[in-house]
């Protein structure tokens, strides 16, 4: 683990607005582990790139789904909390309300058929000029598939979902806030995002030039109840930075200069990160791109074995005995 107390080169305040490169991952609280795994891998065709535990609660899995290597911008992560006494959450103001995935425009009919064949209710709409399908996962998370022709990222493919139809990663996230002015100012002034469109009560911002995986939609829900964290809600959205120096620069700016309550740097093994609540109340994480998910197992075996942080290895037998058994498909 890096010693984050060591001094690093100070990045000028004016440059911190250039450090956020887009979405890193989205993390949600969900219900049943097997149900969650089956939905994201078998139905949506994502790869399980890491099977580990919640570093703050080792009785609960932490699943990471994405492309072949778990590229930042393509990582959906979940905590399956069934049996742990966690309440059903309520999606509302101060949360990520919608998580959007990117698919080829010509694949939208494929996804409508596939989702409806699985018994899901699918709403068709056009958002910012793009065909969009909206649906829910088994825990009640609101998801979207946005058809577009701009996404050149290489997808993970399965026997049922070929390259022409496969999910490329995230397209956007939608934040629900009760009052949008402070959120607009924060995203543009501190994250360097650019306003690129508006539809009704939704304003779209783009990170680092825009494109799939770079969009954040801010939905001003003035009369909405505040969201309640729990099963079926997004816990946080993480934004990516290039390295530890950029992470520490963002922390200094947020904590020391702006007065935000920011955590110390967390070592999440596959990235380093900080957490804070932005002005609209949504929990944000800022995470480094390295070291990535191949740090403790080869790419061809990602997601196959339970991986634990070093400090939990002495407890492996107990942890494995307390986690629910799940059937994992062999990706090799």
What does this structure look like?
This protein has 332 residues and is of the alpha+beta class. It has one domain (13-322): 2,3-Dihydroxybiphenyl 1,2-Dioxygenase, domain 1. Helix content is 15%, strand content 33%. It is built from five helices and 16 strands. The radius of gyration is 19 Å and the shape is globular. The protein starts with 22 loop residues before the first strand and ends in a 10-residue tail after the last helix. The model is unreliable at 1-13 (pLDDT under 50).
Short overview:
By secondary structure, the chain is an alpha+beta fold. The protein has helices at residues 33-43, 108-117, 181-189, 244-257, 316-322, and strands at 23-30, 47-54, 57-66, 75-80, 95-104, 123-127, 130-136, 142-148, 169-177, 194-199, 202-206, 215-220, 233-241, 266-267, 272-277, 283-288. A hairpin with a 2-residue loop joins strand 2 (47-54) and strand 3 (57-66).
